Amino acid sequence: MENKSIQDIKDRLYRRVSNSRNNSLEESNITPKFVLLFAMFTLAWYILVSSSSAFFAIVRIFFHIANTLFTQFLNPETVQGLKLILTKSVSPLHLVTKILYILSQFFIVVGILISSRKVINVKFGKEYKAFAIFNLFLCLAGIAIPVVASSLNTTRLYHITLFFLAPFCVIGGIATFNGINKVSGKRLSEESMKVSLKLLSIFFALFLLFTSGFIYEVTKDNPYSISLDNTIDTPRFNDKEVHAAKWLTDVTDSYPIHADGYGHLLLREFDYYRVRIFLSESKGLPSGAYVYLRSLNLKGITTNRDKYGYFNVELSNSTFYNNVITMKNMIHLRSVTFIVFEKLPDLTV
Protein backbone atom coordinates (compact mmCIF):
# COMPACT_ATOMS: atom_id res chain seq x y z
CA MET A 1 0.00 0.00 0.00
CA GLU A 2 2.80 2.32 0.95
CA ASN A 3 4.69 1.50 -2.24
CA LYS A 4 1.58 2.33 -4.29
CA SER A 5 1.23 5.72 -2.59
CA ILE A 6 4.85 6.52 -3.24
CA GLN A 7 4.43 5.51 -6.88
CA ASP A 8 1.36 7.78 -7.21
CA ILE A 9 3.36 10.70 -5.83
CA LYS A 10 6.18 10.00 -8.29
CA ASP A 11 3.71 9.86 -11.18
CA ARG A 12 2.11 13.17 -10.20
CA LEU A 13 5.51 14.85 -9.87
CA TYR A 14 6.59 13.47 -13.25
CA ARG A 15 3.41 14.77 -14.91
CA ARG A 16 3.88 18.21 -13.37
CA VAL A 17 7.50 18.42 -14.44
CA SER A 18 6.62 17.25 -17.96
CA ASN A 19 3.78 19.77 -18.28
CA SER A 20 5.92 22.64 -17.01
CA ARG A 21 8.73 21.66 -19.36
CA ASN A 22 6.38 21.55 -22.36
CA ASN A 23 4.84 24.89 -21.40
CA SER A 24 8.26 26.49 -21.06
CA LEU A 25 9.25 25.14 -24.48
CA GLU A 26 6.09 26.55 -26.05
CA GLU A 27 6.65 29.92 -24.42
CA SER A 28 10.28 30.04 -25.55
CA ASN A 29 9.51 29.81 -29.26
CA ILE A 30 11.58 32.33 -31.20
CA THR A 31 9.32 34.79 -32.98
CA PRO A 32 10.12 36.68 -36.20
CA LYS A 33 10.16 39.93 -34.22
CA PHE A 34 12.80 38.53 -31.90
CA VAL A 35 14.93 37.39 -34.85
CA LEU A 36 14.63 40.83 -36.48
CA LEU A 37 15.55 42.59 -33.24
CA PHE A 38 18.52 40.28 -32.71
CA ALA A 39 19.72 40.88 -36.28
CA MET A 40 19.46 44.65 -35.84
CA PHE A 41 21.47 44.62 -32.61
CA THR A 42 24.09 42.33 -34.17
CA LEU A 43 24.41 44.58 -37.20
CA ALA A 44 24.66 47.67 -34.98
CA TRP A 45 27.39 46.00 -32.91
CA TYR A 46 29.47 45.12 -35.98
CA ILE A 47 29.09 48.68 -37.26
CA LEU A 48 30.16 50.09 -33.88
CA VAL A 49 33.25 48.03 -33.07
CA SER A 50 36.61 47.94 -34.89
CA SER A 51 35.79 51.01 -36.99
CA SER A 52 33.16 48.93 -38.81
CA SER A 53 35.89 46.77 -40.38
CA ALA A 54 33.94 43.52 -39.84
CA PHE A 55 30.78 45.09 -41.27
CA PHE A 56 32.62 46.47 -44.31
CA ALA A 57 34.24 43.07 -44.90
CA ILE A 58 30.82 41.41 -44.95
CA VAL A 59 29.44 44.08 -47.28
CA ARG A 60 32.41 43.64 -49.65
CA ILE A 61 31.83 39.90 -49.75
CA PHE A 62 28.15 40.38 -50.63
CA PHE A 63 29.00 42.92 -53.33
CA HIS A 64 31.62 40.57 -54.77
CA ILE A 65 29.09 37.72 -54.82
CA ALA A 66 26.46 39.94 -56.49
CA ASN A 67 28.91 41.12 -59.16
CA THR A 68 30.11 37.62 -60.06
CA LEU A 69 26.94 35.59 -59.48
CA PHE A 70 25.87 35.35 -63.11
CA THR A 71 29.25 35.67 -64.82
CA GLN A 72 31.11 33.14 -62.64
CA PHE A 73 28.27 30.81 -61.61
CA LEU A 74 29.53 27.19 -61.34
CA ASN A 75 32.98 28.30 -62.45
CA PRO A 76 35.59 26.13 -60.66
CA GLU A 77 38.14 28.95 -60.85
CA THR A 78 36.04 31.15 -58.55
CA VAL A 79 33.94 28.55 -56.69
CA GLN A 80 36.26 26.91 -54.18
CA GLY A 81 33.87 24.11 -53.21
CA LEU A 82 33.30 23.04 -56.81
CA LYS A 83 37.04 23.17 -57.53
CA LEU A 84 37.70 20.75 -54.66
CA ILE A 85 35.13 18.33 -56.07
CA LEU A 86 36.43 18.49 -59.64
CA THR A 87 40.13 18.47 -58.80
CA LYS A 88 41.74 15.12 -59.58
CA SER A 89 42.58 13.13 -56.46
CA VAL A 90 46.25 12.47 -55.81
CA SER A 91 45.62 8.75 -55.18
CA PRO A 92 42.80 6.17 -55.15
CA LEU A 93 42.55 6.41 -51.34
CA HIS A 94 42.03 10.17 -51.54
CA LEU A 95 39.36 9.52 -54.15
CA VAL A 96 37.59 7.24 -51.66
CA THR A 97 37.56 10.12 -49.16
CA LYS A 98 35.99 12.43 -51.73
CA ILE A 99 33.30 9.83 -52.47
CA LEU A 100 32.56 9.46 -48.75
CA TYR A 101 32.13 13.23 -48.43
CA ILE A 102 29.76 13.32 -51.41
CA LEU A 103 27.76 10.40 -49.98
CA SER A 104 27.41 12.17 -46.65
CA GLN A 105 26.04 15.24 -48.45
CA PHE A 106 23.64 13.01 -50.35
CA PHE A 107 22.42 11.49 -47.07
CA ILE A 108 21.88 14.99 -45.64
CA VAL A 109 19.73 16.06 -48.60
CA VAL A 110 17.68 12.84 -48.39
CA GLY A 111 17.27 13.30 -44.63
CA ILE A 112 15.98 16.86 -44.97
CA LEU A 113 13.57 15.90 -47.77
CA ILE A 114 12.19 13.01 -45.74
CA SER A 115 11.84 15.13 -42.60
CA SER A 116 10.12 17.99 -44.44
CA ARG A 117 7.65 15.62 -46.12
CA LYS A 118 7.01 13.85 -42.79
CA VAL A 119 7.74 10.43 -44.26
CA ILE A 120 9.11 9.48 -40.87
CA ASN A 121 8.18 10.88 -37.49
CA VAL A 122 11.11 13.02 -36.39
CA LYS A 123 10.51 15.59 -33.67
CA PHE A 124 12.51 18.61 -34.79
CA GLY A 125 11.34 22.08 -33.82
CA LYS A 126 10.46 24.62 -36.50
CA GLU A 127 13.44 26.77 -35.55
CA TYR A 128 15.85 23.85 -35.91
CA LYS A 129 14.39 22.90 -39.29
CA ALA A 130 14.75 26.51 -40.45
CA PHE A 131 18.42 26.56 -39.38
CA ALA A 132 19.01 23.20 -41.08
CA ILE A 133 17.48 24.31 -44.40
CA PHE A 134 19.47 27.56 -44.29
CA ASN A 135 22.71 25.64 -43.68
CA LEU A 136 21.89 23.22 -46.49
CA PHE A 137 21.49 26.15 -48.89
CA LEU A 138 24.77 27.53 -47.55
CA CYS A 139 26.48 24.23 -48.44
CA LEU A 140 24.94 24.24 -51.91
CA ALA A 141 25.99 27.87 -52.37
CA GLY A 142 29.55 26.86 -51.50
CA ILE A 143 29.70 24.60 -54.57
CA ALA A 144 27.74 26.81 -56.97
CA ILE A 145 28.10 30.51 -56.13
CA PRO A 146 31.48 32.24 -56.41
CA VAL A 147 33.28 33.65 -53.35
CA VAL A 148 30.90 32.02 -50.81
CA ALA A 149 33.21 29.11 -49.93
CA SER A 150 36.50 30.96 -50.35
CA SER A 151 35.39 33.82 -48.08
CA LEU A 152 35.01 31.39 -45.16
CA ASN A 153 37.18 28.51 -46.43
CA THR A 154 35.37 25.37 -47.58
CA THR A 155 36.54 23.25 -44.65
CA ARG A 156 35.31 25.79 -42.10
CA LEU A 157 32.01 26.24 -43.96
CA TYR A 158 31.42 22.48 -43.99
CA HIS A 159 32.31 22.22 -40.31
CA ILE A 160 29.90 24.98 -39.24
CA THR A 161 26.96 23.68 -41.28
CA LEU A 162 27.36 20.15 -39.87
CA PHE A 163 26.34 21.43 -36.43
CA PHE A 164 22.80 21.58 -37.78
CA LEU A 165 22.92 19.04 -40.62
CA ALA A 166 24.57 16.05 -38.90
CA PRO A 167 21.30 14.47 -37.60
CA PHE A 168 19.87 14.53 -41.12
CA CYS A 169 22.87 12.56 -42.38
CA VAL A 170 21.85 9.72 -40.04
CA ILE A 171 18.19 9.95 -41.08
CA GLY A 172 19.06 10.09 -44.77
CA GLY A 173 21.55 7.23 -44.45
CA ILE A 174 19.00 4.93 -42.82
CA ALA A 175 16.36 5.89 -45.37
CA THR A 176 18.79 5.25 -48.25
CA PHE A 177 19.75 1.78 -47.02
CA ASN A 178 16.06 0.98 -46.36
CA GLY A 179 15.30 2.06 -49.93
CA ILE A 180 18.03 -0.22 -51.26
CA ASN A 181 16.52 -3.12 -49.30
CA LYS A 182 13.08 -2.31 -50.67
CA VAL A 183 14.33 -2.15 -54.27
CA SER A 184 16.08 -5.48 -53.82
CA GLY A 185 12.73 -7.05 -52.93
CA LYS A 186 13.14 -7.29 -49.17
CA ARG A 187 10.31 -6.29 -46.88
CA LEU A 188 10.92 -3.46 -44.45
CA SER A 189 10.94 -4.89 -40.96
CA GLU A 190 12.71 -4.53 -37.66
CA GLU A 191 15.43 -6.84 -38.94
CA SER A 192 16.02 -4.77 -42.09
CA MET A 193 16.20 -1.65 -39.91
CA LYS A 194 18.97 -3.27 -37.88
CA VAL A 195 20.82 -4.11 -41.08
CA SER A 196 20.51 -0.47 -42.23
CA LEU A 197 21.89 0.74 -38.91
CA LYS A 198 24.84 -1.64 -39.17
CA LEU A 199 25.61 -0.50 -42.71
CA LEU A 200 25.40 3.14 -41.64
CA SER A 201 27.71 2.42 -38.69
CA ILE A 202 30.25 0.90 -41.09
CA PHE A 203 29.95 3.97 -43.32
CA PHE A 204 30.65 6.35 -40.41
CA ALA A 205 33.56 4.21 -39.21
CA LEU A 206 35.14 4.40 -42.67
CA PHE A 207 34.32 8.11 -42.84
CA LEU A 208 36.18 8.70 -39.57
CA LEU A 209 39.24 6.68 -40.60
CA PHE A 210 39.59 8.41 -43.96
CA THR A 211 38.70 12.00 -43.03
CA SER A 212 40.91 11.98 -39.93
CA GLY A 213 43.89 11.05 -42.11
CA PHE A 214 44.52 7.81 -40.23
CA ILE A 215 44.39 5.69 -43.41
CA TYR A 216 46.86 7.97 -45.21
CA GLU A 217 49.21 7.95 -42.25
CA VAL A 218 49.20 4.14 -42.03
CA THR A 219 49.66 3.66 -45.79
CA LYS A 220 52.02 6.68 -46.15
CA ASP A 221 49.80 7.92 -48.96
CA ASN A 222 50.23 11.71 -48.96
CA PRO A 223 49.28 12.17 -45.28
CA TYR A 224 47.90 15.56 -44.29
CA SER A 225 46.83 15.26 -40.65
CA ILE A 226 48.90 17.63 -38.49
CA SER A 227 47.71 15.71 -35.43
CA LEU A 228 49.16 12.41 -36.63
CA ASP A 229 52.27 13.68 -38.43
CA ASN A 230 54.46 16.37 -36.85
CA THR A 231 56.58 16.73 -39.99
CA ILE A 232 53.76 18.38 -41.97
CA ASP A 233 54.19 22.11 -42.40
CA THR A 234 51.46 24.10 -40.67
CA PRO A 235 51.20 27.18 -38.41
CA ARG A 236 53.12 25.34 -35.70
CA PHE A 237 56.29 27.06 -34.46
CA ASN A 238 59.26 26.04 -32.33
CA ASP A 239 60.81 28.10 -29.51
CA LYS A 240 63.58 29.46 -31.73
CA GLU A 241 61.09 30.79 -34.29
CA VAL A 242 58.97 32.42 -31.57
CA HIS A 243 61.95 34.10 -29.86
CA ALA A 244 63.29 35.30 -33.20
CA ALA A 245 59.89 36.72 -34.21
CA LYS A 246 59.62 38.58 -30.92
CA TRP A 247 63.14 39.97 -31.29
CA LEU A 248 62.47 41.23 -34.81
CA THR A 249 59.13 42.86 -33.94
CA ASP A 250 60.78 44.65 -31.02
CA VAL A 251 62.84 46.68 -33.50
CA THR A 252 61.50 50.17 -32.95
CA ASP A 253 61.50 51.49 -36.53
CA SER A 254 58.49 51.38 -38.83
CA TYR A 255 59.92 49.33 -41.71
CA PRO A 256 57.66 46.46 -42.83
CA ILE A 257 58.47 42.83 -41.98
CA HIS A 258 57.94 40.24 -44.71
CA ALA A 259 57.40 36.52 -44.08
CA ASP A 260 55.93 33.55 -45.93
CA GLY A 261 52.32 32.37 -45.63
CA TYR A 262 52.68 30.72 -42.21
CA GLY A 263 55.46 32.92 -40.85
CA HIS A 264 53.35 36.06 -41.12
CA LEU A 265 50.73 34.48 -38.84
CA LEU A 266 53.30 34.24 -36.04
CA LEU A 267 54.65 37.76 -36.57
CA ARG A 268 51.18 39.26 -36.48
CA GLU A 269 50.79 38.04 -32.91
CA PHE A 270 53.48 40.57 -31.96
CA ASP A 271 53.03 43.39 -34.49
CA TYR A 272 50.00 43.17 -36.77
CA TYR A 273 50.36 46.28 -38.90
CA ARG A 274 54.01 45.96 -39.99
CA VAL A 275 53.76 42.40 -41.26
CA ARG A 276 53.48 41.55 -44.97
CA ILE A 277 53.57 38.30 -46.97
CA PHE A 278 56.25 37.53 -49.53
CA LEU A 279 55.42 35.11 -52.35
CA SER A 280 57.77 32.84 -54.25
CA GLU A 281 57.21 34.94 -57.39
CA SER A 282 57.89 38.29 -55.67
CA LYS A 283 60.57 40.20 -57.59
CA GLY A 284 61.52 42.70 -54.91
CA LEU A 285 60.65 44.39 -51.63
CA PRO A 286 60.63 48.01 -50.42
CA SER A 287 63.90 49.55 -49.32
CA GLY A 288 64.60 49.06 -45.63
CA ALA A 289 62.22 46.10 -45.24
CA TYR A 290 62.96 43.08 -43.07
CA VAL A 291 62.42 39.46 -44.09
CA TYR A 292 61.73 36.74 -41.55
CA LEU A 293 62.56 33.15 -42.50
CA ARG A 294 61.29 30.14 -40.60
CA SER A 295 63.31 26.97 -40.01
CA LEU A 296 61.61 25.31 -42.99
CA ASN A 297 62.50 28.26 -45.20
CA LEU A 298 66.16 27.60 -44.44
CA LYS A 299 65.65 24.09 -45.82
CA GLY A 300 64.49 25.50 -49.17
CA ILE A 301 60.68 25.41 -48.70
CA THR A 302 58.32 28.37 -48.47
CA THR A 303 54.57 28.67 -48.05
CA ASN A 304 52.52 30.59 -50.58
CA ARG A 305 48.94 31.73 -50.13
CA ASP A 306 46.20 32.22 -52.70
CA LYS A 307 42.39 32.35 -52.62
CA TYR A 308 42.23 28.56 -52.21
CA GLY A 309 44.52 28.39 -49.18
CA TYR A 310 48.17 27.69 -48.35
CA PHE A 311 50.59 25.48 -50.28
CA ASN A 312 54.33 24.79 -50.20
CA VAL A 313 56.76 25.55 -53.03
CA GLU A 314 60.53 25.30 -53.42
CA LEU A 315 62.15 28.49 -52.24
CA SER A 316 65.59 27.82 -53.75
CA ASN A 317 64.23 27.84 -57.32
CA SER A 318 61.87 30.78 -56.86
CA THR A 319 62.03 34.30 -58.25
CA PHE A 320 62.08 35.68 -54.71
CA TYR A 321 65.16 33.65 -53.82
CA ASN A 322 67.11 34.59 -56.93
CA ASN A 323 66.13 38.28 -57.01
CA VAL A 324 66.01 39.08 -53.30
CA ILE A 325 67.58 36.59 -50.90
CA THR A 326 70.85 35.98 -52.73
CA MET A 327 71.39 39.73 -53.17
CA LYS A 328 70.98 40.92 -49.58
CA ASN A 329 72.65 40.77 -46.18
CA MET A 330 71.99 37.77 -43.93
CA ILE A 331 71.75 37.88 -40.17
CA HIS A 332 71.66 34.55 -38.32
CA LEU A 333 70.02 34.48 -34.89
CA ARG A 334 69.53 31.17 -33.09
CA SER A 335 69.21 29.17 -36.32
CA VAL A 336 66.61 31.57 -37.74
CA THR A 337 67.63 33.87 -40.56
CA PHE A 338 66.67 37.46 -41.18
CA ILE A 339 67.38 39.33 -44.35
CA VAL A 340 67.65 43.07 -43.76
CA PHE A 341 67.64 45.63 -46.57
CA GLU A 342 70.11 48.50 -46.25
CA LYS A 343 69.42 49.06 -42.56
CA LEU A 344 70.79 46.67 -39.92
CA PRO A 345 69.33 46.71 -36.38
CA ASP A 346 71.46 46.31 -33.26
CA LEU A 347 72.04 42.63 -32.51
CA THR A 348 71.62 42.76 -28.75
CA VAL A 349 70.47 39.28 -27.82
Describe the structure.
It is globular and about 80 Å long. Helix content is 55%, strand content 9%. The protein has three domains: 2-30; 76-219, no CATH class; 239-340. The model is unreliable at 333-337 and 340-349 (pLDDT under 50). With 349 residues, the protein is of the alpha/beta class. The strands form two sheets. Strands 2-1-3-7-6 form a five-stranded mixed beta sheet. A two-stranded antiparallel ribbon has the order 4-5.
Fill in the keyword field for this structure.
single chain; 3 domains; five-stranded mixed sheet; two-stranded antiparallel ribbon; 13 helices; 55% helix
**Which value, in Å, is the CA radius of gyration?**
28 Å
What is the straight-line distance between the termini? 85 Å
Series of H and E elements:
HHHHHHHHHHHEHEEEEHEE
Number of strands: 7
Shape: globular
Give the integer mean of the pLDDT values. Answer: 80
How many domains comprise the coordinates? 3
Order of the strands making up the biggest sheet = 2-1-3-7-6
Strand count, sense and barrel status of the largest sheet are: 5 strands, mixed
* Proportion of residues in extended strands: 5-15%
Number of helices: 13
- Portion of residues in helices? 55-70%
Q: Low-confidence segments, ≥5 residues, pLDDT <50?
A: 333-337, 340-349
Going by helix content, strand content and strand pairing, the class is: alpha/beta
